[in-house]
Amino acid sequence: MNTPTNNATSPWMNDELTLFRDNVRRFIATEITPHEAQWDERQYVDRALWLKAGAAGLLGTDVPVEFGGAGGTFAHEAVILEELAYAGNTSWAKGVHEIVTHYFVTCGTPEQKMRWLPKLVSGEMVGAIAMTEPGTGSDLQAVRTRAERNVDHYLINGSKTFISNGHHCDLLIVVCKTDPAAGAKGISLIVAETQNLPGFKRGRLLHKIGQKGQDTAELFFENMRVPVENLLGGCEGQGFYQLMNQLPRERLIIGVGAIAAAEAAMHHTLAYVRERKAFGKKLLEFQNTRFKLAERQTEAAIGRVFIDHCIQKLMDGRLDAVTASMAKWWGTQKQCEIIDECLQFFGGFGYMTEYPIARMYQDARVQKIYGGTNEIMKELIARSMD
Questions:
Q1: Rounded Cα gap, residues 122 and 124, in angstroms
Q2: Cα 121 to the chain's mean position, in Å?
Q3: Does the pTM exceed 0.90?
Q4: How far is CA 298 from CA 217, 253, 263, 333, in A?
Q5: Fewer CB atoms near the end CB (10 Å): N or C, the chain?
């Protein structure tokens, strides 16, 4: 589809990014869109997609050149996230892969960066991060997965759930306790290379309301043996700080996709109401239609300005946790509201999955849950007011 809004005027866009956007759009049209139905049915994308994306320069776009990346900025990632949303693609959990990649860029030791970043950029390795547990969601301090050091390795025991890229991942960042008595200071991030790793087990692929083509799995660790050199950053007890440092970027990634999805919903709906007739008139000629869509178009435009502001702040190194929380909760809330109201104009057709608006409706709901629930986002914002 054509870009649904005038985001070419976003202050962070330039001629190079415009050309990059064209390349991304072609890649999606060729390598992703034709396969969506198949991926939805089996619940995961082709492994070859990751290698193709790596060859096309779409992975690790802001990873430094010395580690195999393109040396770009977050703007390149934002372009990809937007184009995926405009195309209605949620099967490819690229955002999660990039979040994992950025952990190594910012937290990894020089040896860890050299060891893993080139493979993440090429698509040879697929990244995932294991935070959520059956009894622990947004409260990361309550994780129960345990890592006990035994001379030159850790033995890890526990389980994780709702893990995006859990089926494909070769490189898994495990959030675990290395010192259960130390609270937040006892949390560490340990990297597991999952291929043929004793004690590592992939559970079932989970059936979801939406984002059906994206593999989401349970993971189990039973005396999983991981070398001590796989401790992210090389120092125990830094995990909670590392997580908090990266979460603003993760939440902005969610916000970018949310606003782009809202824009896409408006694009599809405007095209529909301009053609669809009822009682001898086009739907767009009814005052209710015009007023409702005017309200939602205004909200989408406000969201665009705010998300552009956040993107620029991240690129300048000034994005704080509170602003990122605002982008996440407000962006996803408006995504769900706008898509819901847009679907109403399609009538019964909006409930049919062959219509993009129906898939958008299914895929949007989880946006208010992962990356920290919207209730948690509001609490974080409220704390800044004390």
A1: 5
A2: 17
A3: yes
A4: 38, 22, 11, 15
A5: C
Distance (Å) of CA 73 to CA 77, 254, 279? 7, 17, 51
**Domain segments of the chain as ranges:** 7-126, 128-237, 241-383
Residue with the two structure tokens 């609270």: 183
Q: Which residues contact 355 (CB under 8 A, 6 or more apart)?
A: 346, 349
Catalytic positions, please? 250
**Fold category of 7-126 in CATH:** Butyryl-Coa Dehydrogenase, subunit A; domain 1 (1.10.540)
- Are 310 and 317 in contact, with CB atoms under 8 Å apart? no
| pLDDT (tens place) for every residue of the chain, 386 residues total | 445 654 557 999 999 999 999 999 999 999 999 999 999 999 999 999 999 999 999 999 999 999 999 999 999 999 999 999 999 999 999 999 999 999 999 999 999 999 999 999 999 999 999 999 998 877 788 899 999 999 999 999 999 999 999 999 999 999 999 999 999 999 999 999 999 999 999 999 999 999 999 999 999 999 999 999 999 999 999 999 999 999 999 999 999 999 999 999 999 999 999 999 999 999 999 999 999 999 999 999 999 999 999 999 999 999 999 999 999 999 999 999 999 999 999 999 999 999 999 999 999 999 999 999 999 999 999 999 98
**3-state secondary structure at position 205:** strand
- Cβ–Cβ under 8 Å, residues 339 and 361: yes
Pairing of strands 171-177, 187-193: antiparallel
The string of DSSP codes covering 244-285 is HHHHHHHHHHHHHHHHHHHHHHHHHHHHHHTT-EETTEEGGG
Q: Which amino acid is at 241?
A: Y
Spatial separation of the C-alpha atoms in residues 208 and 186, rounded to whole Å: 33
128-237, CATH topology level: Butyryl-CoA Dehydrogenase, subunit A; domain 2 (2.40.110)
**Superfamily name and number for 241-383:** Butyryl-CoA Dehydrogenase, subunit A, domain 3 (1.20.140.10)
Using CA atoms, how far apart are residues 375 and 267, in angstroms rounded to an integer? 29
Q: Which amino acid is at 142?
A: A
Give the type of residue at 206.
L
| Burial of 241: CB neighbours in 10 Å, binned 0-12, 13-18, 19+ | middle
